[in-house]
Amino acid sequence: MSATAEPAPGPRATLRHVLLHLVTPLLMCLGMGLAYMGAFVTPEPNHLPVAVVGSGPAADSVAQGVREAAGDALDVRTLPDRGAAVDALKSLDIAGAYIPGAKSPELVVASAGSDMSAMAVQKIFTPLAAERGVPLKVTDVAKPVADDPTGQGLFFLLVAVSIGSYASVAVLGAAGAGLRMRARAGLVVGVSFAVSLIGAALAGPIFHLAHHGLWGVWAMAWLYSAGVLFIGVGLHTFLKRWTTLTMMVLFVMLNFTTSGGLFRPELQNGFFGALHSFWNGAGFVEGIRAHLYFGGHGLPAHVWTLTAWLLAGLLVVAVAALWERRRRVAPAPEPTAEEEMEESVAV
User: Fold this and answer.
1) Is-contact 220 213, C-beta < 8 A?
2) For residue 97, what are the β-bridge partners?
């Protein structure tokens, strides 16, 4: 008997199939709009830490006036002298310090910590000096390198390393579906190493963001990339074609917006500010920032953040490996050409 060809699906079934697969890009569109516009369109100070330098009634009066005028926008404190203010700036405890003076008031900032925060502080204190009819002197005690004048190059480095990482998940998930999890984990190590080398090359010899400490930049890039890849490869076992959408939510929508690369959390609402404290993109950007510009202040905490995400990825991969082992009695079908095409389009 000759095998008969299966009938082609009808127009309604084809239309239903197309509409189902359009859900993913439409959700990406909605998610990207909500995340990026919610985080970046209207940056406003939200308990932005600043200081008034001086002691006695005069400094207290200035601080109280700024506090009453700003409300919840600023977290105003007083510091005894300029040295204490510089230390607080280099520890990223404050975004700016105002030193009152009858003839030449001074604003001290550290723009390497956040150029946008430094600009926001300057915008706040310039009118205060103007009321007294004197110009405001602005002193930057921690400038980014001349090759990255706004300090935002670290954010775009995060974007490059992230894309190389989560896009590789789609390839390893689709093309590597027939491999054992151990083999895919080995590929993750190799791919993350390659991505981190590309990141180090971008930060060092290509765009000169890092004039020193390039090995530290590479190490944090590897920790970050490996964490993203292990989480993605592990999740692909369970989520299949929904993995790309999930990765974009985790490592684009929520990640780029909370990294502090463009706006620090004090210029964002509470939701994005809260995620900044433990998300891996923030650990990457703030870790490299501390490493390059602030003498390693706070660096161990950021490295631990990246390590925790890597450990979470290893845990997800271990659970996925156990689940696949139990299902190996009934071999999983090879990915169809249609599924491979979806993964390629998503990348």
Assistant:
1) no
2) 51, 108
Residue 7 reports pLDDT greater than 80 = no
Q: Sheet with 48-53: list strands edge to edge.
A: 74-79, 48-53, 96-99, 106-109, 137-140
CA gap 252, 258 in Å, rounded? 10
Element (H, E) at 104: none
Provide the token pair at 278: 């433990």
pLDDT digits (tens, 9 = 90+) for 255-272: 999 999 999 999 998 899
Range from 36-40, 110-114, 283-287 carrying the lowest mean pLDDT: 36-40
Residue-wise pLDDT tens digits, 236-254: 999 988 999 999 999 999 9
Closest CA to 66 of 83, 56, 51, 55: 51
What are the helix (H) ranges across the chain?
Answer: 11-40, 57-70, 82-90, 115-131, 153-174, 181-201, 214-239, 243-248, 254-256, 270-276, 280-293, 299-327, 337-346
Sign of CA dihedral 326, 242, 257, 149: positive
- Sequence-ordered list of residues with C-beta below 8 angstroms from that of 196, at least 6 positions apart, any chain: 161, 218, 219, 221, 222, 224, 225
d(CA 235, CA 319): 10
pTM to 2 decimal places: 0.87
Task: Please report where in the chains the tokens 């190493």 appear, as a residue.
Answer: 193
Q: How far apart are CA 242 and CA 265, in angstroms?
A: 30
CB distance 18 to 9 below 8 Å:
no
Q: Given the structure tokens 């963001």, which residue do they identify?
A: 209
